[in-house]
Amino acid sequence: MTIKYTKSFLNRLEDIFAESDYILRYEKGNFQSGYCILNDNKIAIVNKYFPLDGKINALLEILKSIDIQSNKLSDKNKAFFQELMQTSLEI
């Protein structure tokens, strides 16, 4: 799968978070990697001042590092999520 740096691709990534147990927030902060994961509270925070491609890369990294239960996702998002997990992130 090719990573597309568009607003609609970002929205699809956000939809996966919306259907999962994790809460996605955009906040200001000086996170070393551009994002922060609070595993105990299941919150993922991304730097809101990141450009579009930075937000997409951060969300992809987060999705690969947390445990998303794909059985809670809709069929459309489940297929998209499985494609993402097979894609290697090339930065």
Which structural class fits the helix and strand makeup? alpha+beta
**Binned strand content:** 15-25%
So what's the overall shape?
A: globular
Mean pLDDT: 88
Termini separation comes to 15 Å
Structural domains: how many:
1
Q: What's the story with the biggest beta sheet?
A: 3 strands, mixed
> Total number of β-strand segments?
3
Order of H and E elements? HEEEHH
Number of helices: 3
**Low-pLDDT ranges:** none
User: What is the spatial order of strands in the main beta sheet?
Assistant: 1-3-2
Percent helix, as a range, is: 40-55%
Report the C-alpha radius of gyration, rounded.
12 Å
Describe the structure.
The chain is α+β, with helices and mostly antiparallel strands. The chain has one domain (7-77). It is built from 3 helices and 3 strands. It has a 3-stranded mixed β-sheet with strand order 1-3-2. The model has no long low-confidence stretch (mean pLDDT 88).
Topology readout:
Elements: H1 7-19, E1 23-27, E2 35-38, E3 43-47, H2 52-65, H3 75-86
Helix pairs in contact: 1-2, 1-3
Question: Which terms summarize this structure?
Answer:
91 residues, 3 helices, three-stranded mixed sheet, 3 strands, globular, alpha+beta
Describe this structure in a few short sentences:
By secondary structure, the chain is α+β, with helices and mostly antiparallel strands. The chain is built from 3 helices and 3 strands. It has one domain.
